[in-house]
Amino acid sequence: MDDAIKSAPKKIDIYNRRGEFKFKLGDDRLRFGVGVTALYYQEPVNEKLELFTRKNFQDLTRLGSVLPLYDVISTVGVPRDVPEDLSDLYGSLEHIANTTKPLVLLVSDEDKFLIVLDMFEKLHGDLGAKPFIIPYFNPVSPLGMNAGTVDKMKIAIERGLPLIFSNYSMAGASTPLTPAGTLTLLMAELLAGLVISQTIKKGAPILLGMLPVISTCVPCSIFMIRKASLSAWHAPR
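The chain above was modelled as a monomer; its predicted structure follows.
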């Protein structure tokens, strides 16, 4: 663990698709991005809800590209007007084609991740020299790491790409109910991701983050559970 913490870079240079330096993660302000993986699109004029399409992907990527306070563009949605087994490929193609900003890349089908990177290399060339692609990965809470995720991490690291390793929680479901328990479990998962990355290659650039969903009042949550249980017990039969 200590070796992994020491070997991971504390700062990471990020470029755009043109090879221009954009920012250094870990050395300045917070960075913001547009995202992520929508299945539906709501028309802003009439509020009609429709399946997310390639055109939606194009429009949202181009919108994020011209908004100056957004630094990266994440995989904004999942195109559903194409064959399902090709959705990651079509979406990734629209992703790289419609902006020069750095990309946070999510590929849902683990078998398509290598194909997507191969496609990017055919279009762009070496991805690792001045990285503008940042693949995004998750463990499976609680404390699960599937083989597909590790395989994708290995592919990204071998290409010289920085990666994001982030987790989520539902306190009382995928993590313990208490804030301390939730944060402890999430931190253990992140440290596991760090160790795996540095085992694959010492010095591999990795960003760690969590999104803990925790009740603001644990006693209130426990009270409500007890109240619901008592209500059910005393309900007429």
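The first strand starts at residue 12 and ends at 15.
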